[in-house]
Amino acid sequence: MLDVPGGADVALAEIATAQEAVLAEDDPDLLAMVRLAISRDTLSRRNTNVPADLPAVWAMIGCPVRAAALAGAIADPRRREQALAGLVAEPSASDDSARAEAQSITDPDQQAPALTKLAKTLAVSGDIERAKTVARSIANAYQQDQALIAVVQALTAAEDTVRAEDVATSIPHPGRQAQAMIIVLRTLIAAGDATRTGALLARAEEVARSIIDPYRQGWVLGNLVEVLAAAGQTARAEAVARSITGLDRQAQALTSLAAALAAAGDAALAETVAQSITNPGRQAVAMIVVAQALAASDETARAVALARRAESAARLITDPYQRTTTLTSLAQVLAGAGDTARANELADRAACLAQSIADLDQRVQALTNLAAMLATLDDVARAETVIWSIPGPDRQAQALTSVARTLADAGDAIRASALAERAETVTQSITNAHQHGQTLLRLAKALATAGDPDRAEAVTQSITSPDERSQGLVAVAAALSAAGHHERAEAVTQSITKPDRQIQALIAVAVALVPAGDHTRIAGIAASITNPHRQAQALAGLAEALAVAGDTAEAETLARSITSPYRQAQALTGLSRALVAAGDTTRASGTTEQAEALVNSITNPVHQTQTLAGLVEVLTAASAAGQASIMAERAETVARSIARPDRQAQALTGLSKALAAAGDTTRAETVARSITNQDQRARALLAVAAETRGIHGRRLVSSALRSHHWTVSLDALARMCPSIVYTIADEVLPCGTDRAGDPQANRPGSPESGDRVQHSDE
Fold first, then answer.
1. Which of 15, 76, 101, 254 is the most exposed place for a label (fewest CB within 10 A)?
2. Which of 358, 419, 299 has the alpha carbon at shortest distance from 307?
């Protein structure tokens, strides 16, 4: 099915149907939901690396359904929106659907191209005022001006030069205003309107001269040179070109002048202007441009002769990238002029030279340009050979897409389709190392939580990313410490290469040592943490551990030694929790008040919310339901006051988890469902599920598995039903991640034990 166009979409639809069927059950089968989610995510991963402009290629060659399906299947939100922005339907003047579609795109950088396309279409249909309104609705000034320029292009294409000039002159930025004027000028010259051409030329030059940035001014004047030459004002064009101060921009302007002269039939003067350029690379480019114009005018002999002279100039180019692109252009000119033998030689030289380009991006661009040139010359097989020399399947897919687009632009839909198919196939073979590492990390953490630190460590050691491996080892060290394997936990901690992660593991080991009363080792670990922030975190954790162990006096002393208001409040909250559990409500009330008093000294609102949320747990445990409710409302108010959406979501997620831990799962779920960030909302609901358990908890986990990557649910599954984590680990991990002699039969509910997979609350 996957080899059939759209087959993956059918398979995904079938998986979605199966998931809905499981969710419809009174008590959803979590193991079935996990397996379905894994199958779905495996299929979806095929489209993870699809180039954002590949859907547009399919649309260009008449496959809009496939284009839309491919764009919608791209996993990365930003690239998906970029792809969808290129597929905004061409609307009628009275149709608001395209505008709604464009405005539904949340990323401003991706929304702007869609609105630009809409504005351009409205202008073509005659609704100029609405086109300008749409263009000016774009917030970014640069993108707004680009949209107005697109409107000018649409109007000039419709030969409505009066309104095009009106829109062009309304653009406030001088550089972009001059750019729009030049678009209008080209149309006026083509129409032979000498009177309006002269007036607008003078105005455009005046605006160009007012541009302060020399680089930008040179670029605009270079375009003006081309227009002046096309208008027959060659002397004035050359004067403007030579007035440009930057030598590189001046050479570009002279190249434009040479091209215009050649196109106008004055090949002799065009060659003279080209040969006056002193930079060898620019001189070669100018000669190539003139040769192209000569070939287009059927003066093939002169075109070949000039191309040969350009080849001599190209030999003086020292930059490999510039020389490669020049040779590619020369090959195209010679092939077009009938000198295919020499063109093939130059293409071979360009391919060889491209491999010597040190900068990878430049090398890929040079090879992509060469492949596109060969494809337009009907040598698609050779073009593909060049593409396969590009390192990395992701870059190969992008090159295939670029060449496919070139062929689609040229109207060659059949070969464009073949290359687009190849691009899709290549992207499906790409393994995302980061995503794979994240999957292993989450699974390792879940195995550690589920009580299998041996397997967790084996999985962690197979992770190639140092940071992700370090995160996994932190979880392993914590699990080993909690299980009483302190020496082994310390050994794991010492193997962690990331200093910050190592400190996290050391804190976990130190906290786990408290019940054993090994104060000497605890003191040694605490003293080894020199980072003030991490030291405060360690002291807070140790204070809470001492309180849980019954040493409340020492815990209080340690808590009051912490200078960070947030960490001290955290330590005092932990002490209060332990005092409530011990029945000492009077003393607990005092430490709770002290922790609450510190809240206003905490500047980070996320930390404020977390502190208040911790106090909610304590007050709930102390049967002070009224105070707990007031504290929860205060925490929610602080969280919702956070302006940044991601930080607000983080704070609300922490509050939801605390409410769930306190037993107020109804309110916890309400807070969780109010989170606008989909990923954070799922994480919050999963935390609620882990505390709720039962059928409702399993329904929450099943809902998360339906709409999110399967690994997101692993932590909740590890707490609710560890046997499912063991089963899934056996199914998805290679055998090499099992420790030798690992007694899997001893795992509760494992298939080897003969037990059915049970939920921990059954």
1. 76
2. 299
